[in-house]
Amino acid sequence: MPEPADPRALVDDLVAPHAGDWDLAGAVPREVLRALGGAGLLCPGVDARHGGLGRDSRWTGEFTAHLGSRCSSVRSVLTSQSMAAGTIARLGDAEQRREHLPRLVSGALAAAAFSEPGAGSDLSAMTTEVRRDGDEVVLTGHKTWITAASYADLVVVVARQDDGASAVVVPADAPGVVITPVAAPSGCRAAGHADVRLDGVRLPASAVLGGGGQPLPLLVTAALQHGRMSVAWGCVGILRACLTEASRHAAVREQFGVPLAEHQLVARHLAELLVAERSATRACEHAADAVDAASPDQVVAAVLAKHTAATLAARGAASAVQVLGSAAAHDGHPVARAHRDAKLMEIIEGTSEICQLILARHAVAAAR
Ligand SMILES: Cc1cc2nc3c(=O)[nH]c(=O)nc-3n(C[C@H](O)[C@H](O)[C@H](O)COP(=O)(O)OP(=O)(O)OC[C@H]3O[C@@H](n4cnc5c(N)ncnc54)[C@H](O)[C@@H]3O)c2cc1C
């Protein structure tokens, strides 16, 4: 896969000018997603052997932050594609990797489905099931809030199988698959969130990655690792966008005869935004370096990065709205959009509370 000469310029050309309109319309044109995907940019970590860019976690993260600073909806699509590709790369056998990964760097779009109406934070309550039937498997269940499912050509579905769990590659047009967009999401409105119903979907047994039967916690942790890193860097992007917009506005808008930035209470918002952006960036860099070094700390580092960046982005975007005042009180304003998008980052890939529980368990174990 020849890498585009300047991937960030491609984002600035294809995505940035339209992000506000896509948010209001609730959809990104599929051809834009296919163009980014076909350039390998929706899952830059896919190995060159499979036609991907073979980028490391640090490069992928900085690119994700750039995309996230322009459009959290398209960044969310990247997160889903990276989770799907990462799960296939990790759990699939050689033939499954050869079958699916080249497609995911050639314009095919993918989603990753874990959550169910009765299984959000507690994925052990999952009821979607895959059952072996001769040379085939049959998949039945209901997944909810699946990012990018409205655009997807394939969905990597996590399901119970016997005493363990399996990840199954499901073509979106397979008989029995029904994809229904989530109505009026409050943020990342163009990310293609949808419910995925699986009504006795019959597939060849080769659709089950690695033969299946893995322990559910292991399977979930492996897939969420990609998602957490990606969301964390996306939040860095949100903070960068908010810092730039708030600083520019505060430098030129005058009240009481001086620019807003000269009022100390406004300056404090700007200082806090800068601290938030730098702190989130450092947490993400630390986690990316742990991933690239295959460190045993990488799982905790990713949770820490996601929790830090999401919390700071939600708080920072609210501060940016405050600095802009009525200027950011329009649905179409980038800071208003960032504010809505950032709040959702505290919910996905492990809510803030679930991240805190994981980090507290780590702290207690480390102190023993
Ligand atoms: C924008 C968006 C995109 C999403 N994309 C995907 C996707 O691509 N794929 C996918 O599979 N899912 C996706 N989801 C679903 C997401 O993973 C879940 O929403 C998330 O796991 C939380 O589950 P829940 O919404 O059911 O909340 P619940 O689990 O019901 O939690 C509600 C509240 O209770 C708290 N809580 C729950 N348990 C505990 C506990 N033990 N201790 C303390 N507090 C607790 C939570 O932190 C939260 O504050 C997405 C959701 C959103 C909003």
From TrEMBL:
<keyword id="KW-0285">Flavoprotein</keyword>
<dbReference type="InterPro" id="IPR013786">
    <property type="entry name" value="AcylCoA_DH/ox_N"/>
</dbReference>
<feature type="domain" description="Acyl-CoA oxidase/dehydrogenase middle">
    <location>
        <begin position="111"/>
        <end position="201"/>
    </location>
</feature>
<dbReference type="Pfam" id="PF00441">
    <property type="entry name" value="Acyl-CoA_dh_1"/>
</dbReference>
<keyword id="KW-0560">Oxidoreductase</keyword>
<dbReference type="InterPro" id="IPR006091">
    <property type="entry name" value="Acyl-CoA_Oxase/DH_mid-dom"/>
</dbReference>
<dbReference type="GO" id="GO:0016491">
    <property type="term" value="F:oxidoreductase activity"/>
</dbReference>
<feature type="domain" description="Acyl-CoA dehydrogenase/oxidase N-terminal">
    <location>
        <begin position="8"/>
        <end position="107"/>
    </location>
</feature>
<keyword id="KW-0274">FAD</keyword>
<dbReference type="Pfam" id="PF02770">
    <property type="entry name" value="Acyl-CoA_dh_M"/>
</dbReference>
<dbReference type="Pfam" id="PF02771">
    <property type="entry name" value="Acyl-CoA_dh_N"/>
</dbReference>
<feature type="domain" description="Acyl-CoA dehydrogenase/oxidase C-terminal">
    <location>
        <begin position="220"/>
        <end position="362"/>
    </location>
</feature>
<dbReference type="InterPro" id="IPR036250">
    <property type="entry name" value="AcylCo_DH-like_C"/>
</dbReference>
<dbReference type="InterPro" id="IPR037069">
    <property type="entry name" value="AcylCoA_DH/ox_N_sf"/>
</dbReference>
<comment type="similarity">
    <text>Belongs to the acyl-CoA dehydrogenase family.</text>
</comment>
<dbReference type="InterPro" id="IPR046373">
    <property type="entry name" value="Acyl-CoA_Oxase/DH_mid-dom_sf"/>
</dbReference>
<dbReference type="InterPro" id="IPR009075">
    <property type="entry name" value="AcylCo_DH/oxidase_C"/>
</dbReference>
<dbReference type="InterPro" id="IPR009100">
    <property type="entry name" value="AcylCoA_DH/oxidase_NM_dom_sf"/>
</dbReference>
<protein>
    <submittedName>
        <fullName>Acyl-CoA dehydrogenase family protein</fullName>
        <ecNumber>1.-.-.-</ecNumber>
    </submittedName>
</protein>
